[in-house]
Each structure stands twice: as C-alpha cells, then as structure tokens.
Amino acid sequence: MLLLAALTGRAQEAAPQAPPEARQILVMLHLPAPHFRPDAAYGANYRDDAGRLARRRIAEALAREHGLTILEGWPMPALNVDCYRMAEPPGAEPGKIVEALSRDARVDWAQSINTFSAQASDPLYPVQPAALQWQLGEVRKAATGRKVLVAVIDSGVETDHPDLAGQVAFQENFVDGQAYAAETHGTGVAGVIAALAGNGVGIEGVAPDARLMALRACWQVAGGATRCNSFTLAKAINFALMHGAQVINLSLSGPADRLLRELIDVACARGVRVVGAVDAASADGGFPASHPGVFAVAADSGRQLNAQVLMAPGRDIPTAAPGARWGMVSGSSYSAAHISGMMAVLSELRPGLTLPQVRSSIVLQPGGINLCATVTRLTGKCTCVCVEVTPPKIVRLP
Q: Is 301 a catalytic residue?
C-alpha cells in the first residue's frame, strides 16, 4: 500500500521494521521516459502513477527471489528511478545479492547502504579532558559502545536533554514517595557516559552509542547533595540484573552493606562490569569501590590509593545538566562515569571477556589509562598513536 504525500507530490511506502542486525541495500528501478508514461500529464504528482504499481510488483518479485524484505520505496525523478530500501536475509554473504541484482535486466543498479558523518564536533568536546587524554576521536574508529546497556544507578536523569534524547532504554524510579525527577548528579553522570556525539550541541560521551538505564535510586537534597540508601540501591541493582545490564555505574560511596554486596557478587559472577567511585576520605576507598570485583575509580587529580584503583578524568569536566543546560563538574563520581563509558567500549569489542581479563587488558600509564593502547591490545589493530606497552601489574586489595 502506498503512503501518498499529495501536498508535496511525493510518495513513500509504509516501512516495516528490519531485524536489528539486518544489512540493508538500495535497489533502483528505472522509470520510463516521460513521453512514454501514461501519467505524464500529472507532472510531479505521483498519486495517479499506474507505472509505480508495476515497479512495486517488480520490487516484490526481486525481494522474493533473493530473500529480501522491502522496507520502503521512494521515487527519485531527478535520477529517473524508484529507489527501494531492502533488508538482506540473515547470513547473506556481503555483496553477493547486490552483485546479482546489478546483473538483473529489471534493475538499474543496486548498492549497499553506506554511512556518512558530519565533519564537526560538539562545542564543548575540545575542552573535555578525555577527548585529548583518551584520544576519543581515534578510539571511536574501533568502537563507540554500540548497543551496550549501561545502568546508571543514581539520581534522576533528564532523559529529554538535548545530549541524552533517545539514549535511555529504561527509566525507573526506586525512591518511594517521590516522583521521578531530573537531577544534577544523575544527569551529569549519564552525560559523561553516553552523551550524543556529532549532534552539534554540548558534549560527547565516552560511549555515545551505548544505551542507558536511568535508574533513580538516589535523590537530591537541599544544598545539592545526593543521597541513597540500601533499599533503593538494592532495588535498582536487582532491576539492572534482571534486565540485562552489561555495565553498572555506582558513582556513590558509603559503609559496607551486605545486601548490596550480595547483589554485586551476583553481577560479578555474571560478568557484569560494576564500576564504583572512590571516596578519597576513606582509607580503603569506601564501599562499593573497595568490594572485590568492582572497578574502583579515583579522579586523576587526586591521590591513588593503590595500583588496583583506576584513574580517570575527574576535574573540570563539562557535562549535561538539568534544564537542557551544561555545566562543569569535578569528583570521582564523574571519573567512574568515564570508566563506565570505557567499559561499554570494551564490551562492544570483546563482550565475552571475564572480569580478570578485562582488568588485565587495561593499559596503564603515569596518571591514568591509555585507552588507545587498551583498544589496540584487544583488537590487534592500531587505531591511533601506538606505543610499546607492557602488561599492567595487578595488585589485589587485602
């Protein structure tokens, strides 16, 4: 059935959804010369184009023959073709169907769908410490955290923020007696992890193609501080585990807690990357950062407790803020968010790595992490400035 745009003289076909991993191609069917067309008197108006129905039947026949799914069609009079977007069947050999279609007399030409990127960065990207320190532009040639699910267990995230719109797969509130609210800490942490890249505003997340769970287990109090408790956090961690989170960000600290320990142990047993912010005022870094299996993170501007603690940017970090704004933040909460973004990138590259393998793959250098070298170690391909690295020495917490 055709979806007609009478006011513009254009016609588009209803577009079914393609399977998530389906490779897509374009198939061009030639339009007859205008003086041969029975509907030529109608000019650019395709409402009465009987020939279009014939081309649709040709497209359907081609789809049946090659196992394709027609997603949509669009007339392109400037090229004298009808263009059909089709999804290839699972397991199809790359390029084979396009080659076969190109030899078919019914087809003007066929091609794969290519991806193009605008040649610009978001305004605050140049002042993001990780942009330079972690060579994010180069790292993204290898991975962007695509489809990795990151649970942000924190205060509320402004899900319609210009840098976060469309990034949140789940939004849940685990704080009893309060409605879900967009709050400073959760929005800032989410921005560091997965703010949109190349949208022309604000910042760019470490893993801009990751998917977020905005799980509100904390709340903002007078003065801007953020508070949580064992129950709200436990409900949120449980939800994250039940809904397939691959990374859990805990930018918080407090006393050791059995319920949370048990949940974190389950997460670690499943290979979930749990990231915790170090409390600089605590001798052991505080909980959950001190718990075995958790990736403890401190700001690279502070002191490093031991070799087990990862260092990441944590001072003067631009990030998203409620009210469709941006602001500068500091603290190990945002360092942990950087590492959660990094974990999404590494999970895209090597989702099957065990937690010890993830830790041993991280390349350390004075002052922090060499993310480019880490990506090179995992992929065997140099995507940026490559240096000779030695495996980091891992020291376990007592």
A: no
